[in-house]
Amino acid sequence: MIDWQSTVLAAACVTGLVLAGTATALSQGATISLRAHNTLCVTAGGGLGRFNKIVLDRCVGEVPQLFTYVPRSGQIRAAAGGLCIDLDRSPDGPETLHLVRCDGQDQTMHRWSFDAATGLVRYASDNICWDVPKGNFRSGQKLEGSRCVARSANQQFVMNKPAPAAAQATQRPSGQQLRTSAAAGTYRANPTCPAPGKFKSMGNVASTIVFNSRLNQPATVYWLDSNGQPVPYGKLLPNQSLKFNTFFAHHWVVQDATGRCHGQFGLFMAGMGSTNVTVRP
Questions:
Q1: Quick one: CATH architecture of 12-160?
Q2: Which of 80, 135, 228, 266 lies 20 to 30 A from 197 at CA?
Q3: Would you kindly state where each structural domain of the chain is located, as residue ranges?
Q4: What's the pTM?
């Protein structure tokens, strides 16, 4: 049995550089990532779940590191799950960043503005900016909201238009991620599932795939890499939809809690453009 587990990450990255042309991409509501020292990304440390903290982690270019910035609403939305980055203004500790429902059911949503000239991500109605406390650029470091300071390296972010999820080399999650995962999946040996290595994802024509669950139980979504090995990408809950950037002819597996895999031959293949699939019992 092959065990694959991962923290499902919602990521953004921080850096001391500001990229030319970013403002144009953001004004169109494009998919983005945010970089820090070109190696660290802001991540939902416990997975794509409500109130999970936003932390720094190694950038790997996968779907969990994708966001959409919506200038009109001021929302910075995670790639899946209907969640947005917001400020936890708890009286019991530092004001950290975390994920909440984008519809405002969890709390009053903060409107963020991004200044490509300074790199500041600012709470629009207050002098509060995203901040890496004490410049501690390391994996696991929580991001906080602090008083905006001009030219502070701790508060300089860059929004990039990233490559599609599967464009980057995929690596097995680190040991720390395995221990702390709240949305981990285990790829089980099952007659309905493709054997690891049998179906390999090849090709670089960008596309998207959307999984719509009609199951009565949670399932884990796996991408099969170029060696045919399952890489966990997220937890698909009943009546939930998840959208991923991928490539034409790349293979995906949806395995439910009983170990059964769904779709023809136990997998789904991304088509040209956008592919919508419904996962049924």
A1: Trefoil (2.80)
A2: 80
A3: 12-160, 185-279
A4: 0.52
